[in-house]
Write a structure and sequence with these properties.
Layout (H helix, E strand, L loop, with lengths): L1 H13 L2 H4 L10 H12 L3 H14 L4 H13 L3 H13 L4 H17 L3 H14 L4 H13 L3 H14 L4 H13 L3 H14 L4 H13 L8 H19 L9 H58 L5 H37 L14 H6 L7 H14 L13 H4 L15
Helix pairs in contact: 3-4, 3-5, 4-5, 5-6, 5-7, 7-8, 8-9, 9-10, 9-11, 10-11, 11-12, 11-13, 12-13, 13-14, 14-15, 15-16
Length: 424
């Protein structure tokens, strides 16, 4: 019984208030001090924010929200080593994902300042994954992909940013840049217009619309003149919006000049094309007249030969007539080949591919087209085809007409722009 009484007494003693007070007190949550630090940070008083955060940490040295405010303040004060030290402390004290996202973003900005785009991409990606519902983080990641000209990876990231926050004009602007990079020009235009709807005075969106029209190979329902004039209008509007804040180094005026030069170049190209078309039509008419004349002469000779055969013909005269007929047929065959080439050249004018080498895709020199208006290939490619023809006995395209030859047409010293004008 004494042993049982001793056990009961021990249990009572263990549950007594005096013994409970020996347990560690609950952690203090320095909410007021931390909120003061946040308020000071928002007003730009970063040194005072550090002091307020320290006061919070004096009450609870493991309180990560106060560490975060202090780390952000040190970042603003350019005390990056102290910021990194606080980040180590936050990790050791189980910082939340949202807190991790903010620090990852600060570290990413440091990499941006160092021009280390790959490093910034890694850190922005970690930030976005830690806080996947934050449109700003996805937008910043997408911006770094754009800086790396990685438009394929930028596109889905920026689509997510725009979906998370449809009213985020910068996300729409960046998404437009990504679409432009992957040649989805219509979708790029839509995103730029969305940015302008959200922010009508968004000069960057107007400028990027100008770049879109200047760089695009084609825009829906627009010829080159309409496309380049649209680019000029956007750049002019951008200059008006910027007003006196436009720096001397701004490229808008240079881009306007570039668009104007493209228009002048296209006007010259179309003028040359019209003249070439007229020449080809004249050559076709002359060729048809010539072929008709040869055919008539051949028929007349055959009729006379038939009449003479009724009375007998000398063997030498008969051989001469046969030679003349063979020569006429050979001439007709050559002229038929040339006529075919002329017709094909006229088709290329209609299709917008005239003056582009069918083998290399490069522009054919203007001097060569002047000499041989139905040329399909550059001199270099023509030479390769002729060499291949000698080996394989393949048909070689017509390379002369009416005394004009490749040699007389000159070399590849001057290039004519292809029908589709592009900008690298």
């Amino acid at each position: 019984m004494k042993r049982a009484g001793f056990v009961l007494l021990a249990l009572v003693a263990a549950s007594s208030p005096a013994l409970a007070r020996r347990q560690p007190p609950p952690a203090v949550i320095p909410t007021e001090e931390t909120q003061k630090a946040r308020d000071l940070y928002k007003t730009g008083r970063y040194t005072d924010a550090v002091l307020a955060a320290k006061a919070a940490l004096n009450k609870n040295e493991r309180y990560t929200p106060a560490m975060l405010v202090m780390a952000k303040s040190y970042y603003k004060l350019h005390k990056y080593e102290w910021m990194k030290k606080l980040w180590e402390m936050m990790q050791a004290n189980n910082a939340s994902n949202a807190e991790k996202a903010e620090i990852y973003q600060l570290l990413a900005f440091l990499e941006v300042d160092q021009k280390n785009v790959p490093g910034a991409i890694i850190l922005f990606k970690q930030a976005a994954e830690a806080k996947p519902d934050d449109a700003i983080l996805w937008n910043n990641l997408g911006a770094q992909y754009l800086a790396a000209k990685n438009y394929a990876d930028a596109t889905p990231v920026l689509e997510r940013a725009a979906q998370l926050q449809p009213g985020f004009a910068k996300a729409h602007l960046n998404l437009g840049d990504a679409y432009r990079g992957v040649k989805q020009h219509e979708r790029a235009q839509e995103e730029y217009q969305k940015a302008l709807q959200l922010f009508p005075n968004y000069a960057d969106a107007v400028f990027n619309l100008g770049i879109l029209y200047l760089d695009a190979d084609k825009m829906p329902n627009m010829d080159l003149f309409a496309k380049e004039n649209a680019a000029i209008q956007y750049f002019q509007k951008y200059k008006q919006m910027m007003g006196g804040t436009l720096p001397p180094s701004d490229p808008a005026e240079a881009y306007i000049t570039e668009a104007q030069d493209k228009i002048k170049k296209e006007e010259k190209r179309l003028d040359r094309l019209k003249k070439q078309q007229e020449r080809l039509l004249q050559l076709r008419d002359s060729m048809l007249d010539s072929m008709m004349g040869v055919a008539k002469d051949n028929l007349r000779t055959r009729a006379e030969g038939s009449e003479a055969s009724a009375f007998g013909m000398h063997q030498a005269d008969a051989g001469s007539d046969a030679y003349d007929r063979d020569f006429a047929l050979s001439l007709l065959s050559q002229e038929q080949d040339a006529l075919y080439e002329i017709e094909e050249a006229l088709k290329r004018i209609d299709f917008g591919t005239y003056g582009v080498c069918e083998m290399s895709g490069k522009p054919i020199a203007h001097a060569r087209l002047e000499a041989l208006p139905f040329a399909r290939y550059t001199v270099e490619c023509q030479s390769q085809i002729e060499k291949m023809g000698k080996v394989t006995r393949a048909r070689v395209p017509v390379t002369s007409l009416f005394g004009l030859t490749d040699e007389e047409g000159g070399g590849e010293t001057e290039e004519e722009e292809p029908a589709t004008d592009t900008k690298e």
